[in-house]
Design goal:
single chain, about 140 residues, mainly alpha, two-stranded antiparallel ribbon, 6 helices, 2 strands
């Protein structure tokens, strides 16, 4: 469950970390990766991503939460994070990277709709007034 709009939880070595796509996080991501958010998004969608791209995205998200929380949020050193991602499996982090970038580059409502669709939630509509059975 997200605490703030556009935040995501990622589990690394049995510990949850929050990722937040703040302006500072996106600026750091573009600087570290040498690519725009859209270029990263398209590379991941086209399955042309590198380990470095995945690490850059997760690290930038951690730093976004770290800065937004006045340095109270958990973060990992970038090199340590890279090793943990390699150990856990790079492809495990692809969906969260797509979602993170989506919230950074498209309007919030559109991103929510797209993420829900990715997660198969678009068909889960609850009936606000379930039908009552009547005795005949």
């Amino acid at each position: 469950m997200q605490r703030f709009k556009g935040t995501f939880e990622v589990r690394i070595e049995n510990k949850d970390y929050t990722l937040r796509p703040t302006f500072d996080a996106m600026e750091t991501l573009c600087t570290e990766s040498g690519k725009s958010e859209r270029e990263l998004f398209e590379a991941i969608q086209d399955e042309k991503y590198t380990v470095k791209m995945i690490v850059d995205i997760i690290h930038a998200g951690m730093m976004g939460e770290y800065w937004a929380s006045n340095r109270k949020a958990a973060k990992l050193d970038r090199r340590v994070l890279g090793q943990l991602i390699m150990t856990q499996g790079v492809t495990e982090f692809v969906p969260i990277c797509i979602q993170f970038l989506m919230f950074a580059i498209v309007p919030y409502d559109a991103a929510v709709k797209a993420v829900d669709s990715m997660n198969g939630l678009e068909d889960e509509v609850e009936d606000p007034e379930p039908q009552k059975k009547t005795a005949e």
